[in-house]
């Protein structure tokens, strides 16, 4: 019986890809639960205080409830996922690029290159490494979108008055052409389908890079044997 070889390189990244998907499922389930239960909770509190359904205080309170359920909860939950997804993508792709750097001894490390991270990694893969990973321009554009959204959430809480004007104008244009990115009252709202599509795109992107890195080592061994 032949020897079975198991390749453990980048296995932590592959586990984390799975873990982030599980986190997304939990996130959406939790959001659904809180959107359903928060109005119930508030109604019980108002009844306990002696208010009637047609009291003006109840109407005012449920206007606040609508804002929390339709705006604050979805933005808080989904914005946080975008931040986590980008952080995972950047750190993981750096690990893979550094692996290539150590194996190929290419002249530059990705951290020493200029430009924002989407531009750096695209240049690094296409020019420095000169490898084909079947990542088309549409995917690179989506990575740029993910990066811009992450910045808008981290630096401006996804609100127009806090986000860099140039970045906001880009996101505003995307909202006109991309399903799942909405702008309401100067705030960014993302749909669950958009969030899921971003996850799937990152999963495919990293999986291709990992496969290329593993195959590179196999080809390298075959060429030197």
Description:
The protein is mainly alpha-helical and 225 residues long. It has one domain (11-217). It is 73% helix and 4% strand. The protein has helices at residues 11-48, 56-104, 117-128, 137-156, 165-177, 192-224, and strands spanning 181-184, 187-190. The protein has a two-stranded antiparallel ribbon with strand order 1-2. α2 (56-104) packs parallel to α3 and α2 (56-104) crosses α4. The model is unreliable at 221-225 (pLDDT under 50).
Order of helices and strands: HHHHHEEH
The order of strands across the largest sheet is 1-2
What overall geometry do the principal axes of the alpha carbons give?
A: elongated
Structural class: mainly alpha
Give the helices and strands, then pairings.
Elements (H helix, E strand, L loop, with lengths): L10 H38 L7 H49 L12 H12 L8 H20 L8 H13 L3 E4 L2 E4 L1 H33 L1
């Amino acid at each position: 019986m032949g020897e079975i070889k198991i390749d453990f390189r980048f296995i932590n990244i592959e586990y984390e890809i799975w873990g982030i998907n599980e986190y997304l499922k939990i996130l959406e389930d939790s959001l659904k639960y809180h959107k359903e239960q928060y109005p119930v909770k508030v109604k019980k509190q108002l009844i306990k205080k002696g208010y009637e359904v047609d009291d003006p205080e109840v109407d005012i309170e449920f206007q606040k409830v609508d804002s929390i359920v339709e705006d604050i909860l979805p933005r808080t939950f989904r914005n946080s996922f975008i931040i986590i997804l980008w952080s995972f993508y950047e750190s993981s792709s750096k690990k893979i690029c550094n692996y290539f750097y150590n194996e190929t001894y290419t002249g530059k490390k990705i951290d020493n290159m200029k430009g924002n991270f989407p531009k750096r990694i695209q240049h690094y893969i296409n020019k420095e490494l000169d490898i084909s990973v079947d990542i088309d321009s549409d995917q690179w554009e989506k990575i740029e979108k993910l990066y811009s959204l992450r910045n808008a959430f981290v630096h401006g809480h996804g609100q127009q008055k806090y986000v860099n004007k140039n970045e906001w104008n880009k996101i505003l244009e995307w909202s006109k052409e991309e399903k799942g990115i909405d702008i309401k009252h100067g705030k960014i709202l993302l749909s669950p389908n958009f969030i899921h599509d971003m996850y799937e795109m990152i999963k495919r992107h990293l999986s291709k890079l990992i496969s290329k890195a593993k195959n590179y080592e196999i080809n390298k061994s075959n060429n030197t044997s």
